Amino acid sequence: MGMFQRDRQVFADAEPLDDSYEPEDIRERDEELEKYQRALQPIIDNRPTSNIFLYGKTGTGKTVATKYMLSHLENDTAEYDDVHLSTVWVSCENLSSSYQVAVALVNELRNSQDKDRISATGYSQQRVFDILYEELDALGGTVVIVLDEIDNIGNSDDILYGLPRARSNGYVDDVRPVIVGISNDFQFRDNLSPKVKDTLAEKEILFPPYDANQLRSILNPRAEKAFHDDVLSDDAVPLCAAFAAQDTGSARQAIRLLREAGELTQAADSDTVTEEHVREAQDELEKNQLYEGMQELTTQGHAVLCALAYHQALDEVPVRSRDLYERYVKICSRLDADSVSERRVRDHLSDMNMLGLINLFERNEGLSAGRYHEYELDVPLKSVLEVLLDTTRFEELANIIQSTADDNNLLQSDISDY
Ligand SMILES: Nc1ncnc2c1ncn2[C@@H]1O[C@H](COP(=O)(O)OP(=O)(O)OP(=O)(O)O)[C@@H](O)[C@H]1O
User: Fold this and answer.
1) What is the mean pLDDT of the chain?
2) Which Pfam family, just one, is annotated for this protein (predicted)?
């Protein structure tokens, strides 16, 4: 047998399980789509159109519904000579202010007309807004402006105040901007200043989490396309749907789970995606999530984690907060980093407990001694060390902890043990 053989043919076409795949139809969102359609209807009628605000947790279909509605709207407006529609889409994922969003919008508008981009610095905010208004006016008609993940601008929300009022304030004459704001941060919505909320969220559409039945109905058509006949056991899709519904209600999570289960099936050289594969896939994705959670900690967070890993390597867990804090202070001085108060360290620990990285025990030592906390890792020491070894400042310490743990035979456990 050669080194490469054709795969056992689990996947017929992996694309429907890809993040960028656009499904033929949107399932289980009839009510939301109907509201959406009503909100966009005035565009076809050439009437003033309200701004729209979509909100709901991640993976609940806000983006896919918007793409779907806009592509229908674009098609259908083509029937009417007197409707002139343009759409512009900006993802605010890496933008943290109104200024940056305005620059991105200008460049998106200019790009579509083969004009030069403007630089992201060197203009005053007012100047950028003026250029934006000029570009919009030059387009004319109705311009639907989608601001995806708009919550990233935090309270730098001038653009959400200025843009909806551009016409009534006389900054533009020939264009009707319609803003579609999308957010998965409920706090952002609740904290919008009243003046912004009035105009931005004239029409609000909430996208609730999916339940298991809905997720099944979203997964089924994709599963049918993605896998060869008879590859999926009857349990596979329902179990993916159930896991994702229990956890987040996110369609993205359900789809990822199914793909991961398929990949594990392929790797195991098996030709049926069983319940067991789905469970393994769930474990695998959870592990990735924890790993990312660890990577994203701040330097202080890493130092606290490092201190706890040290006690774990010494087999001195659960460890009392006082001892852990002492170790943490030593680690900071070794790293030439400032240390923070014991109270702040406890905050870090409680965050890590929320992330599922550590266990926290409350002890009560009789009336006189009072209460205190003890901590231990809730993830394998091995995976903590992997993260620390990858974090430049901690590499040396991680090596020391690793050999300490080796001396104590504490690194035998494989990641798959938990
Ligand atoms: N009702 C649905 N029917 C079909 N596919 C869906 C549906 N809802 C979500 N999906 C799919 O789930 C994935 C996530 O959906 P989408 O990106 O629209 O979520 P979102 O609410 O915009 O989340 P985020 O805020 O994280 O961007 C996409 O692959 C999308 O195609």
Assistant:
1) 92
2) AAA_22
